[in-house]
């Protein structure tokens, strides 16, 4: 048998090295702190874990047991959440948030964390998003713009009270909030007390404040649909279509697809041809976890009501760009008697529906649509709801508002500020000039967003994130509460607060918004405020430009006043802040890098995909964003919420299943893992396992995990990797600029063009870094953090830049920078419109004749601009060779990698992303140094073969399935190559059956069985074995002949296939440590003896089989105690046990 394992190579090389030059183990020399830290990683490198307290099911005994297990298992800290996803009460006395009993338990946790040397943190609110609580007053809560309109015709005197804008808590106008997600729970467990039925909810307090009262003259040819009185019909039976045109966004109409049809439609018939240029469609808000908003379809028109032509195609739910329930679609000017909206609700995905049903959830049926409003109108800003930050859309560049005639836009000079004429009760007295006017009463009310899923007692409004005052007041109250509960442990064992990924929706107003806007953008927004209601003011370009400035202002306020103010206040009181600011998929109107730049420990999140699926692009981009933020803002740690699951992925996955995900996170720049999740277990007996969970979310990685006593091996692997990747600085050749708009995030919704060439690492930078931190040093782009890049890249979607960024690009190139960027078309900001001449002058000066096709480069000053030339060619021309290259043994072979430099040491992490052994020739941009292999699974360090040529070093690497290695260059050498002895592996014997297999008591399996041959437990005839979960022990006496022992050979025991984790003992002595990934091999040279040897293998599988067994119709006893039902009786079982074949191998070295 031929070996394929880097760790095996380690043992094999030891044989050769002891013969040739000796061998060593990491940490052997006290003069080698890098190796010492690798052998025994410090707490700073060890993983943390989220620690959910659910619905007050908390005990001090459970706290101690949880934290002691974390310490034993190599977890260096816990991040506590007080939450509730519908969990029943299981403990005798529920600990209610911030009551004296709860505080005592919390202080006990702080004391135990101090005793055990664990880092303690806590979410910045109850639940997990975001900064909220019952002490947040309505006036301090998140806000949105609302309005009412009054049409008046002059000339005449108008005296009257303007309609009050909606004061409903919700996403838009008077649209209410969707229901909160609750995970179905098992309430039939012994001792379970279901949560009592909620009393009729008291209406949440509301709030309203006026912004401005403006008037603007209506375009002459515009008639509202309400004034045109169309006849509304539908093919959905029983629908009250009048509700669709009454202006009320709070009353949904259910439109059922008729039997035998695939679509539902709503038609509008006008008495005379109606002129329209836009349509607004509003759906009822839904819980986004299991549904979406407006389905795909078309907007059509007809002259006769029989033959229809399409005006607009509706894209339907978009996984990558947000799904706000209200959307406006612009289309070319059309005049017709008939219009209709055709909608096709998506059919549920059968696989996803089944998975959800196994967890007690369901998808919408796909047979109906709930709409609240449909409005055909004159010209409107295309998709203005997202552009005005009511909802969220990632990429606004492709949805510029079409040009409209000047007479169809609201003239900027016609906008009149009537605010001084309005009394506090809304009464207006005004001499209306000639013409038809809209009096727009603009105000703000609450989004109604609350923290979730928090226990009822911890639930309250989310604080206004755009207000420095409200955020600071919030932080002051929260710090007082938490520090008061913890006493002396606050700032000692308790070190951090934590903000999870953003789940607080979107807000688009705060009390001083107009002043903040004018200070940051340089002009008064007042004449353009009607654009926030969809109106086009001045022109389509001006309106889009104003909304760009509006969103950018929101993003700046969010970063500075939420993340910045909170971090500063926490720091002033001796603690820091971890934050996923803002999380995957740009969930709010923010700038991800800017947000992360304000916090102490920037975080990402990545989720465990279902079997056979690839990683989520959104999560990969978030990893890059967190790592980039750490690099560009000079922060040593980039952390990640790790291995989270949703209902379509395994919630009890093996470390081997998770390893390639963790390796990809490491290669993306993450150097601290935070497990999602280790839920608090209040019980300390064996009768409550697996225990309390977060339902369908997260790896249930607790002291009740089947491999809890073996978790140290997996945690130490991650710690060793994190330790080396915390040293020195990241090495990247390219800085990618992701643009200035908001929301701004590392792109995931489509491939980046130009993509980073293979072999070159990159960071992402934002406008703050570009404008305020980036300079040119020795022809490279340099940052105060120590980062240095060979080139700056603007992807093709960044073809608009503001004038300040354009000026900075000019200055950088002039100083010697290499920049690859498309020729800017214009500025996205209305603030720059007055400086168009300067903008054009700089573009022409810097890009000169570069057109991206015939001419692709231009020297400017000491630097050069490229556009349209492949990046690999650009870098070659600029004499920048790839940092890492490798040969591909097969077309789909994939290695992920990252490079850090610590003083004289170049540290490369390289990982195989395929589940097969592979050999590579890897070439590194290093010369004059010896190559070493550092094995993070064992801690072994060994010399590697290498060859230095053309300023690069080539090293042969052999990987296991999903294998990984560090290649470290730190010792100077004059030798151009090194070869090592050949390693030979010989199979001595295959160990046959029978095998004795013992099971622990009380889990349904017999005490012992005999297996004539090795099979999966799931293939055994007896249910107690088939459905067993836990650790079972194989024993066998094996005769080893005298001739098997050679002085120069090592003996390995190869277990073959193992599902999932193994521990080996021979003659009563443990060998090989904890084996958690292939090849499952142990060095038995020192424990084997000629004659009979007793072999014992402890094999651990995962929880699903026992849980599935309990769901069988024939089951008479429930062995697994679990607070939700993740599987059905027919869910496939997981292969389990020792599958072999078990072999004895001899390893020798030869020249």
Characteristics:
globular, 1151 residues, Jelly Rolls, TIM Barrel, alpha+beta, 5 domains, Immunoglobulin-like, eight-stranded parallel beta barrel, seven-stranded antiparallel beta sheet, 29% strand, disordered N terminus
Can you put this structure into words, describing what you see?
The chain is α+β, with helices and mostly antiparallel strands and 1151 residues long. It has five domains: 125 residues, Sandwich (Immunoglobulin-like); 334 residues, Alpha-Beta Barrel (TIM Barrel); 276 residues, Jelly Rolls; 144 residues; 165 residues, Galactose-binding domain-like (Jelly Rolls, Sandwich). It has 20 helices and 53 strands. Strand 24 and strand 25 form a beta hairpin. Helix 9 packs across helix 10, helix 10 packs parallel to helix 11 and helix 11 packs across helix 12. The longest helix is centred in the middle third of the chain and has 33 residues. It is globular and about 115 Å long. The two termini are 19 Å apart. The N terminus is likely disordered.
Question: Any idea what the CATH superfamily of the largest domain is called?
Answer: Aldolase class I
Largest sheet: 8 strands, parallel, barrel
Q: Specify the helix fraction band.
A: 10-25%
Which fold name fills CATH's third level, the topology of the largest domain? TIM Barrel
């Amino acid at each position: 048998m031929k070996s394929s394992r880097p760790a095996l190579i380690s043992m094999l090389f030891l044989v050769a090295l002891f013969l040739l030059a000796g061998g060593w183990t990491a940490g052997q020399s006290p003069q080698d702190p890098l190796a010492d830290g690798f052998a025994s990683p410090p707490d700073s490198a060890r993983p943390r874990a989220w620690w959910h307290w659910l619905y007050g099911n908390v005990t001090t005994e459970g706290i101690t047991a949880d934290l002691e297990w974390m310490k034993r298992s190599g977890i260096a800290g816990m991040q506590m959440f007080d939450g509730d996803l519908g969990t029943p009460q299981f403990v005798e006395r529920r600990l209610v948030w911030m009551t004296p009993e709860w505080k005592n338990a919390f202080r006990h946790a702080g004391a135990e964390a101090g005793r055990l040397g664990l880092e303690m943190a806590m979410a910045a609110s109850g639940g997990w998003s975001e900064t909220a609580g019952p002490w947040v007053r309505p006036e301090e809560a998140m806000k949105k713009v609302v309005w009412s309109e009054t049409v008046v015709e002059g000339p005449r005197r108008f005296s009257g009270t303007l309609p009050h804008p909606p004061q409903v808590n919700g996403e838009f106008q008077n649209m209410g909030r969707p229901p909160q997600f609750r995970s179905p729970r098992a309430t039939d467990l012994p001792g379970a007390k279901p949560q009592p039925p909620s009393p009729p909810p008291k209406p949440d307090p509301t709030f309203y404040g006026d912004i401005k009262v403006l008037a603007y003259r209506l375009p002459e040819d515009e008639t509202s649909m309400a004034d045109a009185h169309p006849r509304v019909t539908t093919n959905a039976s029983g629908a009250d279509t009048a509700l669709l045109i009454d202006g009320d966004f709070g009353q949904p109409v259910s439109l059922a697809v008729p039997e035998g049809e695939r679509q539902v439609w709503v038609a509008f018939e006008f008495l005379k041809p109606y002129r329209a240029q836009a349509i607004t469609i509003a759906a009822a808000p839904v819980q986004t976890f299991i549904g979406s908003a407006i389905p795909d379809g078309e907007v059509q028109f007809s002259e006769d009501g029989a033959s229809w032509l399409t005006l607009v195609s509706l894209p339907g739910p978009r996984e990558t760009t947000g799904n706000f329930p209200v959307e406006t679609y612009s289309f070319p000017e059309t005049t017709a008697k008939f219009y209709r909206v055709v909608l096709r609700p998506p059919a549920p995905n059968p696989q996803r529906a089944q998975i959800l049903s196994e967890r007690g959830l369901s998808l919408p049926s796909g047979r109906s649509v709930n709409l609240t409003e449909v409005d055909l109108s004159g010209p409107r800003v295309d998709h203005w709801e997202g552009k005005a930050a009511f909802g969220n859309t990632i990429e606004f560049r492709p949805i510029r508002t079409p040009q409209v005639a000047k007479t169809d836009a609201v003239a900027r000079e016609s906008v009149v500020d009537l605010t001084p004429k309005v009394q506090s009760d809304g009464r207006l007295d005004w001499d209306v000039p000639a013409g038809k006017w809209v009096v727009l009463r603009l105000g703000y009310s609450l989004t109604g967003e609350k923290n979730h899923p928090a226990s009822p007692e911890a639930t309250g409004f989310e604080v206004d994130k755009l207000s420095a005052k409200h955020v600071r007041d919030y932080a002051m109250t929260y710090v007082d509460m938490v520090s008061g509960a913890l006493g002396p442990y606050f700032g000692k064992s308790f070190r951090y607060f934590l903000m999870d990924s953003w789940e607080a929706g979107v807000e688009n107003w705060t009390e001083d918004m107009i002043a903040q806007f004018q200070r940051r953008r340089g002009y008064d927004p007042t004449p353009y405020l009607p654009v926030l209601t969809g109106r086009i003011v001045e022109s389509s370009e001006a309106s889009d430009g104003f909304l760009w400035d509006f969103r950018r202002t929101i993003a700046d306020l969010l970063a500075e006043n939420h993340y910045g103010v909170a971090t500063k206040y926490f720091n002033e009181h001796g603690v820091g802040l971890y934050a996923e600011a803002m999380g995957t998929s740009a969930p709010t109107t923010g700038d991800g890098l800017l947000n992360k730049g304000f916090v102490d420990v920037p975080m990402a999140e990545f989720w465990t995909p279902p079997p056979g699926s690839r990683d989520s692009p959104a999560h990969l981009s978030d990893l890059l964003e967190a790592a980039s933020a750490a690099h560009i803002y000079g922060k040593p740690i980039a952390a990640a919420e790790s291995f989270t699951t949703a209902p379509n992925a395994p919630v009890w996955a093996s470390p081997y299943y998770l390893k390639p995900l963790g390796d990809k996170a490491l290669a993306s720049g993450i150097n601290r893992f935070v497990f999602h999740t280790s839920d608090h277990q209040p019980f300390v007996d064996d009768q409550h396992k697996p225990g309390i969970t977060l339902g369908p979310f997260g790896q249930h990685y607790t002291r009740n995990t089947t491999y809890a006593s073996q978790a140290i091996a997996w945690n130490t692997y991650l710690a060793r990797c994190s330790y080396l990747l915390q040293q020195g600085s990241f090495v990247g050749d390219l800085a990618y600029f992701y643009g200035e708009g908001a929301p701004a995030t590392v792109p995931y919704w489509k491939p980046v063009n130009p993509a980073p060439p293979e072999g070159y690492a990159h960071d992402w930078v934002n406008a703050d870094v570009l404008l305020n931190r980036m300079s040119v040093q020795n022809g490279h782009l340099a940052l105060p953090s120590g980062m240095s890049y060979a080139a700056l890249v603007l992807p093709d979607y960044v073809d608009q830049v503001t004038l300040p960024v354009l000026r900075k690009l000019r200055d950088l190139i002039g100083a010697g920078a290499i920049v690859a960027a498309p020729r800017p078309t214009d500025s996205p900001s209305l603030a720059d419109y007055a400086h168009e001449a300067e903008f054009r002058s700089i573009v022409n000066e810097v890009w000169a004749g570069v057109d991206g096709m015939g001419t692709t480069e231009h020297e400017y000053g000491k630097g050069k601009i490229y556009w349209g030339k492949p990046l690999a060619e650009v870098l070659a021309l600029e004499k920048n060779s790839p940092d890492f290259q490798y040969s591909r043994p097969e077309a789909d072979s994939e290695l992920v990698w990252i490079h850090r430099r610590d003083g004289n040491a170049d540290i490369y992490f390289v990982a195989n992303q395929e589940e097969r052994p592979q050999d590579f020739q890897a070439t590194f941009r290093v010369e004059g140094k010896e190559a070493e292999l550092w094995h993070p699974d064992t801690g072994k360090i060994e010399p590697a073969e290498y060859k230095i040529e053309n300023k690069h070093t080539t090293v042969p690497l052999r990987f296991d399935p999903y294998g990984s290695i560090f290649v470290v260059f730190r010792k100077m050498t004059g030798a151009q190559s090194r070869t090592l002895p050949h390693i030979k592996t010989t199979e001595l014997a295959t160990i046959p059956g029978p095998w004795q297999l013992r099971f622990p008591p009380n889990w349904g399996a017999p005490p012992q069985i005999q297996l004539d041959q090795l099979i999966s437990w799931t293939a055994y005839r007896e249910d107690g074995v088939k459905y067993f979960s836990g650790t079972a022990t194989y024993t066998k006496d094996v005769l080893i002949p005298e001739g098997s022992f050679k002085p120069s050979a090592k003996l390995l025991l190869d277990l073959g296939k193992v599902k999932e984790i193994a521990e080996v003992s021979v003659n009563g002595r443990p060998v090989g440590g904890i084996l958690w990934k292939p090849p499952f091999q142990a060095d038995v040279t020192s424990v084997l003896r000629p004659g009979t040897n007793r072999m014992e293998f402890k094999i651990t599988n995962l929880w699903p089989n026992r849980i599935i067994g309990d769901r069988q119709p024939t089951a008479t006893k429930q062995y697994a105690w679990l607070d939700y039902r993740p599987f059905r009786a027919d869910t496939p079982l997981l292969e389990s046990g020792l599958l072999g074949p078990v072999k004895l191998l001899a390893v020798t070295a030869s020249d």
